[in-house]
């Protein structure tokens, strides 16, 4: 299991990881499975071991808003586990996922004070990231927001090839639209614009970035 840098599991020592595994139960979900539903009152947390999920919510008009994409090492559901509030978002698998379900996460934190402090820092980083995205929505056009999200995915999942930085895109255009606060039509137009400029090449659930610096400039 290779936790993504900066994700919860990557911050723990080997002894802390072993204690967490002992406190949880390993489970597996197929692609497209709803793991957590917004409004549920279950208080367990999920630590991702393999695969990626999307965290999303729906507006009153029924539109899906993608809040985040989490990969190996990510921690899901910690807020409800800590404060007992209903789930604030739905979590759906983007590919086959293996995870560790921990039911009494608060007891684990009480027994491992260093991990509790690390979690506070992680939650703070997520709040800052949420603030940055809100600023993007007001400051960037759709193409800029799409470029920013592609760069984020490339940084996390990109694989260097002879033709460029290849990203196995876990999101459909509808989901990418929900992640950028745009319509599917606007996202399709943005991708076409980036292709026409020679910055990217798109395929089925994949993007190859030919000019990272050019894409970064467009994102700004």
From TrEMBL:
GO terms for molecular function: DNA binding; DNA-binding transcription factor activity. SMART domains: cNMP, HTH_CRP. GO terms for cellular component: cytosol. Keywords: DNA-binding, Transcription, Transcription regulation. Residues 8-129 form the Cyclic nucleotide-binding domain. It comes from the Bacteria. Residues 140-213 form the HTH crp-type domain. InterPro entries: cNMP-bd_dom (IPR000595), cNMP-bd_dom_sf (IPR018490), Env_Response_Regulators (IPR050397), HTH_CRP (IPR012318), RmlC-like_jellyroll (IPR014710), WH-like_DNA-bd_sf (IPR036388), WH_DNA-bd_sf (IPR036390). CDD domains: CAP_ED (cd00038). PANTHER family: CRP FAMILY TRANSCRIPTIONAL REGULATORY PROTEIN, HTH-TYPE TRANSCRIPTIONAL REGULATOR ARCR. This is Crp/Fnr family transcriptional regulator.
């Amino acid at each position: 299991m290779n936790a993504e840098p900066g994700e919860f599991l990557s911050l723990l020592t080997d002894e802390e990881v072993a204690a967490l595994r002992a406190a949880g139960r390993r489970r597996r979900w197929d692609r497209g499975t709803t793991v957590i539903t917004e409004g549920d009152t279950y208080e367990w947390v999920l630590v991702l071991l393999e695969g990626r999920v999307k965290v999303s919510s729906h507006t009153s008009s029924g539109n899906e808003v993608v809040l985040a994409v989490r990969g190996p090492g990510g921690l899901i559901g910690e807020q409800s586990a800590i404060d007992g509030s209903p789930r604030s978002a739905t979590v759906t698998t983007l590919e086959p996922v293996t995870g560790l379900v921990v039911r009494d996460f608060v007891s684990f934190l009480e027994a491992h004070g260093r991990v509790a402090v690390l979690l506070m820092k992680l939650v703070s980083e997520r709040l800052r990231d949420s603030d940055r995205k809100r600023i993007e929505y007001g400051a960037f056009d759709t193409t800029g927001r799409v470029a920013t999200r592609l760069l984020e995915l490339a940084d996390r999942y990109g694989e260097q090839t002879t033709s460029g930085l290849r990203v196995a895109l876990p999101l459909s255009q509808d989901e990418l639209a929900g992640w950028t606060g745009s319509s599917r039509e606007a996202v399709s137009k943005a991708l076409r614009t980036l292709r026409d400029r020679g910055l990217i090449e798109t395929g089925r659930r994949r993007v190859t970035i030919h000019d990272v610096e050019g894409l970064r400039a467009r994102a700004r």
